[in-house]
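Quick start: load a record and inspect it. Here is Ubiquitin-like protease family profile domain-containing protein:
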Amino acid sequence: MNSFIQVLNYESKMSSKVKPYVKKYCFTLYFTNKLLVPLELFDPVTCIREFDRINSEESLWKQDLLYFPTIKSNHWVILSINSLFERSHFFDPCGTILGTTQEELVYNLVNNY
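Running the structure step on this input writes:
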């Protein structure tokens, strides 16, 4: 999955230089899982180094869509922050994650990010 993420980020970066496409960035599974913990367990110190590295390469504040992949119930799901419309989204292709769990994950992500 991390290889796919690197390709997605590279293609997004190259296409945004040529045409005014929507700018997007996808975080690694490792980083995403650090952000999905409950607020009382979140340790920002563990995220700062990776966040600074990413932000130095890609200005995250200029990205229109941020993707956060993770594994839940033995399959991939993606959480997304859409800065264009100031929304967060939860994509579950199998539909096996309960609504309360979805809301909890989105809440943790938005507050920890």
